[in-house]
Write a structure and sequence with these properties.
- The complex is a heterodimer of chains A (162) and B (392).
- By secondary structure, chain A is an alpha+beta fold.
- Chain A folds into two domains: 38 residues, no CATH class; 87 residues, 2-Layer Sandwich (Alpha-Beta Plaits), CATH 3.30.70.920.
- In chain A, the strands form two sheets. Chain A has a four-stranded antiparallel beta sheet.
- Chain A is extended, with a radius of gyration of 21 Å.
- Chain A starts with a helix and ends in a 15-residue tail after the last strand.
- Chain B is an alpha/beta fold and 392 residues long.
- Chain B folds into two domains: 137 residues, Aspartate Aminotransferase, domain 1 (Alpha-Beta Complex), CATH 3.90.1150; 224 residues, Type I PLP-dependent aspartate aminotransferase-like (Major domain) (Aspartate Aminotransferase, domain 2).
- Chain B is built from 13 helices and twelve strands.
- In chain B, helix 3 crosses helix 10, helix 7 packs parallel to helix 8 and helix 11 runs parallel beside helix 13.
- The radius of gyration of chain B is 21 Å and the shape is globular.
- At the A-B interface, helix 2 of A face helix 2 and helix 11 of B.
- Bound molecules: pyridoxal-5'-phosphate.
- Pyridoxal-5'-phosphate binds next to helix 5 of chain B.
């Protein structure tokens, strides 16, 4: 992957001037490249990672990871059934997997009841869906490469050493 | 009752008392009294050891591997090291008797110097250098013949200066590249010039290549790659820098078996062996540490580019270092000597770096700035230094 994308992926707020210095290229080049990535949809958007473990009590929400077994449709395979599912705003992520089941769906809701009824009333009855297994998420340790539980690791290096 | 005197009543080693005084000790002590300092004075990686290495050490500890190892170190590790050296330069070392695992390159340098020197033997030391070389030479009974690398040569060793010192009948030369504190490294052609002289005068080359994997602008060439150098070189390397493993304390030498045997004699009496958990960790690093080592190097490289452009922009002349994680920066525009510069910067802006006099008696115009620190820290420190310069 382009190093500009690598840097932005770990820090969406990275200053193009800093990126230019880090990669030893002109800042105009960095800005052009970013604009191009945005135009092509390579950069989808700039989001913020929020540590919900810390907000837990202020902001109740429930996440469920759902395994979905599907009968693929002639000509369309899994894509159209996947679309019927991922169009729901409750669905955070939707993946097609190899193995014991077909689609892996992550659903978010304000409480258990809402998420359960989404599964029972919307997802399960859908045509071509042969079964679901719902796992409620209990604790996030690491999200998308970032460790979320407070580690308290201090820099133990002596401040100066030769 | 008579008050007890706090004066120690014993005569201590004159040799140790006479070692080069660390003019910067006082500065280091001052840094340690301060809070909230952004430090660019650190000589070790800011990364933690890659998790697979830590995990492998834990696994072996849990299995109960808590004993001594053979004096020379675990044979499996020596084999992996021999293989690594072979892959780097096509030179074969026999893991049985040509490799010694030590407690870091630090211990390796000490035992090798003691193994090769007789009282009064001269050892050339290329300056500015890592602080411990000259003291180790002196403690081993030798005389350090320091060769200063000059700013007009971008702090690279000038073959003519080397030749001049070689004429003084030095027995060995301590040569470190990529270098602490300058970040200087050498291309294959540049090394060839140096090797020619070392061979002409038949000098033993003590080559500290501990930063070899942190070389940014060209591939690192070991001195071992040159024909005939195997028998004239003691090759030093370790795990501290490239794999972010300073605390594990594992280094090694590869050398002629007579030198290894002598060094091992000292090592077995004084150290017995390097710590077993560190040796297991080192084995894992060689087995599958390549990927994370490259990721760290990539990050250092970005910081290097950033910091060098920032420093030069504020008028602090800084050559692009080709390796390691330091810049050796000229602060003479501040009209302060390097210790005063470092002290004032520390007191007024809470940024720590290391005065050049720590590394060379000619270092009064330079400071060593380490970029083994997060990008955010480096950026903030650059703001503060810029501000500091304006206030002078
Ligand atoms: C050039 C050089 N050699 C050796 C060492 C010591 O390394 P080790 O941790 O292997 O003792 C250092 C540490 O700063 C160094 O900079």
């Amino acid at each position: 992957m382009d190093e500009i994308l690598e840097i932005l992926q770990s820090n969406a707020k990275a200053d193009p001037a800093d990126i230019a210095h880090q990669l030893d290229i002109p800042v105009e080049k960095v800005c052009e490249a970013i604009a191009e990535y945005e135009k092509r949809g390579v950069i989808v958007k700039y989001k913020t990672i929020i540590n919900k473990e810390i907000l837990k009590n202020e902001d109740e929400e429930v996440t469920a990871l759902i395994e979905v077994k599907v009968t693929p449709q002639k000509d369309k395979g899994f894509d159209s059934i996947a679309e019927r599912i991922y169009r729901f705003p409750e669905v955070l992520s939707c993946y097609l997997l190899s193995g014991g089941y077909d689609l892996f769906v992550i659903v978010k809701g304000p409480d258990l009841r809402t998420v359960s009824s989404f599964v029972a009333e919307k997802l399960s009855p859908m045509e071509n869906i042969n079964g679901t297994v719902t796992h409620f998420l209990l604790k996030r340790y690491k999200d998308d490469g970032d460790i979320l539980i407070l580690q308290g690791k201090k820099d133990t290096r002596p401040l100066v050493s030769a | 009752m008579m008050e007890q005197s706090h004066e120690l009543q014993f005569d201590l080693s004159r040799l140790v008392a006479g070692l080069p005084p660390s003019g910067i000790r006082e500065f280091f002590d001052l840094v340690l009294t301060m809070d909230d300092v952004i430090s660019l004075g650190v000589g070790e990686p800011d990364f933690s050891t890659p998790w697979h290495i830590i995990e492998s050490a834990i696994f072996n500890l849990e299995k109960g591997y808590t004993s001594y190892t053979s004096n020379k170190g675990m044979l499996g590790l020596r084999k992996s090291i021999a293989e690594t050296i072979y892959l780097k330069c096509g030179i074969e070392y026999n893991p049985e008797d040509e490799i010694l695992i030590t407690v870091g390159v630090s211990e390796a340098m000490d035992v090798v110097l003691r193994a090769i020197l007789n009282p009064g033997d001269k050892v050339a030391v290329v300056k500015p250098s890592y602080v411990s070389y000259s003291p180790c030479v002196i403690m081993a009974g030798g005389i350090a013949e320091e060769i200063e690398c000059r700013q007009e040569n971008r702090f690279k060793l000038d073959p003519a200066d080397l030749e001049e010192v070689c004429r003084k009948k030095v027995k060995a030369i301590i040569f470190n590249y990529p270098g602490n504190p300058t970040g200087v490294s050498y291309t294959k052609d540049e090394l060839a010039e140096i090797i020619k002289i070392v061979q002409k005068y038949n000098i033993l080359l003590l080559s500290d290549e501990i930063y070899d994997s942190l070389t940014y602008d060209f591939n690192h060439t070991s001195v071992l790659c040159f024909p005939g150098m195997k028998n004239q070189t003691v090759y030093f390397n370790g795990f501290s820098k490239g794999y972010a493993m300073t605390g594990w304390r594992i280094g090694y030498i590869a050398a002629h078996r007579d030198i290894v045997a002598m060094a091992n004699k000292i090592h077995q009496y004084t150290m017995l062996c390097a710590p077993i958990m560190g040796q297991f960790a080192a084995m894992e690093a060689l087995r599958s540490g390549e990927h994370e080592a490259l990721a760290m190097k990539k990050e250092y490289n970005r910081r290097r580019n950033f910091i060098v452009s920032q420093l030069n922009d504020m008028g602090l002349t800084t050559f692009l270092p080709q390796g390691a994680f330091y810049t050796y920066t000229d602060v003479s525009i501040a009209r302060l000597n390097s210790i005063d510069f470092a002290k004032k910067l520390l007191m007024e802006r809470k940024v720590a770096l290391v005065p050049g006099t720590a590394f060379s008696s000619c270092g009064e115009n330079h400071v060593r700035i380490s970029y083994a620190s997060s990008f955010e820290n480096i950026k903030e420190a650059m703001f503060r230094i810029k501000d500091f310069l304006k206030s002078l």
